[in-house]
Amino acid sequence: MGDDLPDKLTRLAALADRHGLDTLVLREPATISWLTGARSHVPQTLDTSCLDIVVDCRDRGADPDGGRHAAARLTVVANAIEAPRLRDTELADRAVEWAVVPWWEDRSAALPTGPGVGSDRPAPGMVDVRADVAALRRQLTTAQAETLGGVCADAARAATVAAGRCRPGMTEYAAAALLAAELLDRALDPVALFVAADRRGAAHRHPLPTAASITDRVMLVCCARRDGLIASVTRIRCFTPPTGEDRDAYRRLLDVEAAFLDASRVGTPIGDVVAAGVAAYPAYGFDATEWHRHHQGGFSGWQPREYPAHPGSADPLTAGSVVAWNPSGAGWKVEDTCLVTPAGPRPLVHDPDWPSVTVAGRHRPDLLID
């Protein structure tokens, strides 16, 4: 759970205090990742975690450092398949209690309920605190921000190496295999893999790999996770020189991305950031409805995107928020993972071996051209 566990428990204690709660039941995969960094994505359904965590906030007192987390008791609720793995790996040597149930039984029966219990995925009899927990986990701790920087750097390097190994005639599946291998070699779990040969990315904005062969260019896209944190990366390699028109379109798309980044400031509603990016499409020569063809990104960190942000989204950016924007148009796409700081957004997906271009004072990924 890392050295920042006291910080996270203090935040949870304050949340419980605001709602007059004694106990928090954490069930959302993103929340489990935020609190523990554990790999919990081995359930029977993709939107659930293989463990729940009960945070007992009763009778918590001040510790020697002045926090209020000292007496908070954590209980991990897991089935008999997952509990041994979690004990031996992700949660080894952690001061937690265990409630282990047979795999054929519903874990929810082992969870507390009642008016003093809140949850980020509430069952009947629990207080709904999902919005508060989501806002809490959007602010990375210092340790989490450092971890995310390493995840992003390694994901960027994996994309560079994989792109360098791609060849004309190779199928999209083969290119995806190269990217997956490079990610796994760096202890990164591939959460999403997209590959577009030639101009297929213009027709399909989420191009799951197919047996189509690469001829002129290839776009590699991944969301990669380690310690619960996710980096989103897009890189494009051209095997034949792009036309001047294509180069110009890609450069203008970087200008659109700059509008998203310039607007990604502490305190700004995320919908206002999207509105700034949307206005940039026609300002830089794209169709004004281009953004209708693909979601533009949003909050990231513990999920590839918490939800696709749109101009009406009201959640504010805070210091420590993670955003990933992915504008696309004219067959091109750009994407990065950024930490929001008081000084502005800090792009984290960078590999010095990938060509870059300076846009709005930032180093941005260029096309890799043979």
Task: Give the structure's gist in a few sentences.
By secondary structure, the protein is of the alpha+beta class. It has nine helices and 18 strands.
CATH topology of the largest domain: Creatine Amidinohydrolase
- Named at the architecture level, the CATH assignment of the largest domain is Alpha-Beta Complex
> Regarding CATH, which class of the largest domain?
Alpha Beta
* Mean pLDDT across every amino acid position: 93
Contiguous uncertain segments of 5+ residues: 62-70
Q: How many DSSP helices?
A: 9
Order of helices and strands: HEHEEHEEEHHHEHEEHHEEEEEEEEE
Count of separate structural domains? 2
| Proportion of beta-strand residues | 15-25%
N-end to C-end Cα span = 44 Å
- State the secondary-structure class: alpha+beta
Strand order of the largest sheet: 4-3-2-1-5-6
Radius of gyration: 22 Å
Principal-axes geometry comes out as: globular
The fourth-level CATH homologous superfamily of the largest domain is: Creatinase/methionine aminopeptidase superfamily
Helix content: 25-40%
- Main sheet specs: 6 strands, mixed
Number of strands: 18
